[in-house]
Amino acid sequence: MKTTMEKLPGDTEGVSYELTVFRFKGSSRKAPTAYIQAALHAGELPGVVAIHALMPKLRAAEAEGRILGDITVVPAANPVGRAQYHFGELEGRFHLGTRTNFNRDFPLIDRPDKSALPKLPAGSTTDLRLKHLLVGLSMGHDIVLDLHCDFEAVPYLYVPARLWPAMQDCAAALGVEAVILWDGASGSAFEEASIHPWLQVPPEKASLDKRVVTTVEYRGILDVDDKLAKSDADGLYRLLATRGVIEDEKAAKPRKFTGVVTPIDHVEMIDLPRAGAILYHAKPGQRVRKGAKLATIVHTPGEPNGSVDIYAPQAGYVLTRIWQRWGRAGDNVFKLLGEAKSAKPKSGALED
Ligand SMILES: [Zn+2]
Question: Partner of 319 for a Cys bridge, out of 13, 19, 98, 335, CB 3.0 to 4.6 A?
Fold first, then answer.
């Protein structure tokens, strides 16, 4: 394995960042290759600790000559966001300098080749340089995994609809509970930038059935936990074995995905009708009927009519809720995987 430090200049004099890249060389040119990154949203650390638990397994496989395809690992993909503390709070989602989401505005290139990446003009900001660097590192890999997390959630995946159901084995290997299939544009999220070039080449050359591109949502932001990290590392390793990046017959045992699969236009984004304190009556992983009470919002404490209830607009599966017990009017509070199309359907991106 080779370890390198990628340097990233900052936007002001004397400031620069660096990120670690681990590269394992595969022994077979025919084997699929894999790229794994975590914490592009810099405060989402379940994937970082999963990679930390995965690395000894990869090193052991390397020592035993079982790494068949090249593997590139970026355990902490966003040192720029990681350094953004504002009045004691980490802002790892948006770049403070440009106010853009770290997981939007990636370059969409017209062929799966690093040389198709446009040259960055002088004056490009650090967040753009970072996006350019990450697309360059991931480009050309058959398997691209971007590890994130939600606020409070079951583990789930975003998967480009074109790669489903071929990616069922991956969802089963990772042990997630749900899969959201998306189509169309996502505001150029990393996942879209990873699949876009393959959708521009003729299907017989793209071999979409062999490709894996996904945003892995490893539960909630507080689920940074030793046991979960180890089981998530087992899941990542299983995926690599299942797809033949690593040789391990025991781990590669085929599995069938039995979780919830939902097109993105079935997702109900349930927002707060009023600002206030949130009392939850439903949690991620729960199935609810139409009209089930999901939460009570206490907006005028002490008054007889000081609270309002929110209900499920249709039957479905509670995927996520926010970790805060407060919010403003209009804030999204739940994502519900509806059984039918939502009355307010979303396309490729659910939120900023
Ligand atoms: Zn994220």
Answer: 335
